[in-house]
Amino acid sequence: MTEAKARELLSRPKGSVSLGTTGSGRLLDGARLPEKGPGYAVFPGFRQRKTNFATSELVDLVQRATRRVGERFPGSRIGIGNCGFEAGGKIPWSVSHQAGRDCDLGMYATDARGRAVEMVDFVTYDRDGAANGGRYRFDLPRNLELMVALVTDEVPVQYVFVAEWLKTKLLEEARRQGLPADLLTRLGEVLHQPSDSNPHANHFHLRIFCSVEDRLQGCRNWGPERAWVDLGDAPWAERVGALARVVEEVHTTRLRRDAIKRIGELRGTPALPTLLAALADPRDDVRGDALRAIRALAEPDAVEGLLTAMAKTPDPRWASRIFDAVLATNDPSTVPVALRAASSPESLLHADARKRGEPRLQVTACRILGRFGKADAAPTLLDLLESPHGEVRTAAHEALLRVTNQKISGAGLGSSSARRRARVVRSWRTFYEKEKDESWLQWLRIGFEARGVRFRGKMQSPAGVERLIDAIGDRDAVASDNAVRALSEITGHYVDPSWRNKRNNERHWRSWWSDSGATVAFP
Fold this sequence. Notes:
Layout: H1 3-10, E1 17-19, E2 26-28, E3 31-32, E4 36-37, E5 40-42, H2 44-47, E6 53-54, H3 56-72, E7 78-80, E8 102-105, E9 109-111, E10 116-117, E11 130-131, E12 136-138, H4 140-151, E13 157-161, H5 164-176, H6 181-190, E14 191-192, E15 204-208, H7 212-215, H8 233-249, H9 253-265, H10 272-278, H11 284-297, H12 303-312, H13 316-328, H14 335-343, H15 358-372, H16 378-384, H17 390-404, H18 418-435, H19 440-450, H20 462-471, H21 477-491, H22 502-516
Parallel strand pairs: 5-7, 13-14
Antiparallel strand pairs: 1-2, 3-6, 4-5, 8-15, 9-10, 9-12, 11-12, 13-15
Helix pairs in contact: 1-8, 1-9, 3-4, 4-5, 8-9, 9-11, 10-11, 11-13, 12-13, 13-15, 14-15, 15-17, 16-17, 19-21, 20-21, 20-22
């Protein structure tokens, strides 16, 4: 690996580049979708937003698909809503649309007499396909033609988000027209009502996969793959391997650092051994970049290597930063490590880093236990309530609130008064001694009922699940998160509460329970 090859490898291509995910990414050199073109026009109310930018692939796809409908049904023109900003990033009207791979398309409509109508804004269609009191009708032939144009294009479509009842009508129309079975399969997979946002009964939300070229730059797909789509796994693995060789073989620090950052952007897990080795680099900046890249990977397989690196450093601050990367993996498998760090942090540290580094490790361990810990974490956390370090006591109390779902006040834990601190400890130990033989789910139930969330019969029942879904909306963040954790435990459908906000968590669970609840076996 020469410096010249490294520079070529790290250079950005010309044209648009989608980076990151649709919900947390950005766009380089965004391509502009003209406000008007054959078969489409950006809705008048959206033009001043300047959200008609996307990757060149998405812009071309929209233009080809709408042109096709216009050729098949002369005079047809569909309205366009938000795509994204020229540089990507957040838009005020959506949590996605950040990486240039999303675009909102209107829906073709007819009037009550079946005559084609050109819409000037989104309208919402009911389960009969009517909008505005029957003034408009969802135009099945033209909307289906658009969907077929999208899913058969050379640009691979991951999703067209649309309400389930409109999807059903489109598939019925496709069968009526006698479309091939493989095309019906594609339509069935791509058309999808999202489980964690509005059902999309007033527009189609189009999302494409990363192009292979963009994936090599750091574009990241999220969600299901499609059997007919080549996502470029082979060139991606080759690119990650080449970047690892830059780190290992090139002497120029700038190039090595850029390669490390790019590995993080690509979520290049095959290069994890290279990143872990770089934690021992003599340069602080290289070590820092490597640790940030490892955090970006969020890979549980990194934990063992992180612990090894932590045990070798005499610097307690650097050891603490390394252990924070364990928290960043955001995985329940880190609980045993967290228990060890909480109860005997000295066993994980270099001799010179002990004492000064132990409280930092214990605070991070408490955060892990608060996120994933269950009843077996309680004894360790109870002991930490009597730590000589105020930040450890506070972290242990916050973790106990999440582990037990109780509402015990921690006022006094930060006090210099031993009596005030002892009062809090006594409250927690009283709870534990009374309920230690009960299950973790029973602890959660006690906490829910203390907040007024009542269950009729077992919590592990269909009625209990529905009550827990209601509890996701609780004002108390601890109760809301624990409702999600309890649902995961009861149903076997794992969801991390941090993946979505409270509102979208509730939407997700209502949708999932409606679709899959019948498959859950209760004791």
